[in-house]
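thought: fold this chain, then report.
action: predict
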Amino acid sequence: MMAWPQEMIRRHPRLTTLVLVLLVGTVATWALRNMTVPNPATSHRCQDNVSAIFQGIMLHRSGSRGHTWPASLNVLRTEASPDAIIFWCPGAPAPANPSATPSDYFYLPPSSGWFSDTLILCELSDRHPHFGQVVCFADGRVCMLGKWELRAVLANPHNARFAAAYRQALNKYKPR
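observation:
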């Protein structure tokens, strides 16, 4: 006596093919419906937010004696507005209580003797997996870096302080 699937395949080859096509079609449809479609608009708005934050950093530096870097993003938030939307990634829902919600971006002022490719600002969340994470360098360049590119930049010796603090911030970060 033959096993059931083999018997069915032998007796009804067309029916078996139809069942397989329907099964594959159903799985493919389910996968396509549940797939997240990358949205380049939110990643570009995220880059705009980081550029605006950098402009705020430069305004703070030009207004301070000795052109000092702001100690944290909270300094900028109090100077601008605590609920300014630039401090949160546009790929996430808007925070319910903006003034009490931590920023989606991590900032660490560079130490003295910084290089142009010293990281000062990086997105904490991974909301743009198809495009990368938004970063800002001390010279004002804002760009998207893929996972491996970000790891390489964080591995630079002059970014060691930023990398250690960024990893700690990632452990504490709770995405909305």
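thought: worth noting. The two ends are 59 Å apart (CA to CA).
final: tokens above.
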